[in-house]
Automatic annotation (TrEMBL), chains A, B:
Residues 1-208 form the Flavodoxin-like fold domain. This is NAD(P)H dehydrogenase (Quinone). Keywords: Oxidoreductase. Coiled coil: none annotated. Belongs to the NAD(P)H dehydrogenase (quinone) family. It comes from Modicisalibacter muralis. The lineage of its organism: Bacteria, Pseudomonadati, Pseudomonadota, Gammaproteobacteria, Oceanospirillales.
Amino acid sequence: MHVLIVHCHPEPHSFNAALKDVAVETLQRLGHTVEVSDLYAEGFEPAEGPQHYAQRSDPRTFSALTEQRYNSEIATLPADVQREIARLERADLVVFQFPLWWHAQPAMLKGWMDRVFVYGGLYTGKRRYDCGHFRGRRAICSVTTGGPAATFGHNGRGGDIELLLWPMNYSLYYMGYDVLPPFLAHGIQGGGPIYQAQDTFKAQLETYKADWAQRLENLEEDTPIPFTGWSDWDERGVLKPGVEGYDYFIRARR
Amino acid sequence: MHVLIVHCHPEPHSFNAALKDVAVETLQRLGHTVEVSDLYAEGFEPAEGPQHYAQRSDPRTFSALTEQRYNSEIATLPADVQREIARLERADLVVFQFPLWWHAQPAMLKGWMDRVFVYGGLYTGKRRYDCGHFRGRRAICSVTTGGPAATFGHNGRGGDIELLLWPMNYSLYYMGYDVLPPFLAHGIQGGGPIYQAQDTFKAQLETYKADWAQRLENLEEDTPIPFTGWSDWDERGVLKPGVEGYDYFIRARR
């Protein structure tokens, strides 16, 4: 198996970076090949916009979808986007490593999605969801949060983590991926332990690293998050009667 | 009333820009003062990271929270962040105008949140949610989507729009805002009408503009999205027995 790790954290000595290293070491030890997109280290530009397109289908008015499709067709996508797409095309599994900032992925990773998941090249109106470009491949998010685990439960103050990650996971499903349930490391704050004593915190970090390695060793046993698909929708794009809704996986856990 | 419009679209002639103009004109006509943060036009840098902090609490290891707090305290926050905070401090109402990209706000706007909502200065562990810095003020998202309205219903293929906007709206509530239900303009694609004939599409755009103006004229009648607050949570940050959960507003609509 070939694995791409999309790593998004500005600090090379962060716990996110440590989890990324655990993934690289574990996957290589299992005999897989691993490639890393280190978005901050590589200086990825997150803002989609006209500055990335020397060739324009419409030179007057910029539309991201129009220029993504046009530049896909004539093979003039931005060099960094071409590089990321080539990495995705090689990967049987994509691991996203990032901290939860403002109830979502950091802007850097959001911009990677805005720019790399190009219309025309990687999806069209018909080529998405369970007919998506990357169908048959898997993706998983490994996420750190800044609060105690209980606050990210379905009744927690921090917000139900399943609900917070839904837009990101649904985007991955949109691209065709089988999306595995996320790996979560709670209570991580770069400035030091907030909710625990120093010793407990250090032990907790080691436990998380071991848990992540174990999770990666047993990934074959994971069941992807269930999503509805084309056979569940009518011609208006609405669920047929009797079919479970999008939030099935959330409700199923309660 | 003084209003800040945080506008996020790369194209000055986009429909998002037209909706932003409608908001400016309508609010001024009503006698309010209006200020616009035009994130693309002003070249806002969305990626939070060490490059923004000349002064460092910890010069060795970068933590966003640590440096946000430290630079808040010694009044050395980045100039663009100081400008945006000053704009927020002046505003009784904040309007966010953006297209839905990958089931969320564009990276540019996500980065505005990552960088401008600074720890220490604008929130702390105790100063958030219904004790947040901007309590008593209002915020509203005006969002364009690229698909038909039906596909963004609770049973729609595009994903329940209430669920997709939850992380953004919950972040605004985290800062203390009363968050009004979003204004939605569906089926907008910059490249031209996809789902409708040209004539129908143009008429639809005019209808959306009129609807947005009318919504802004009657904003006083809007009921904010209900969120749980400090009195609903126990000391672990979990809802007390019998209290409705975070997804109350979603479930209430079904």
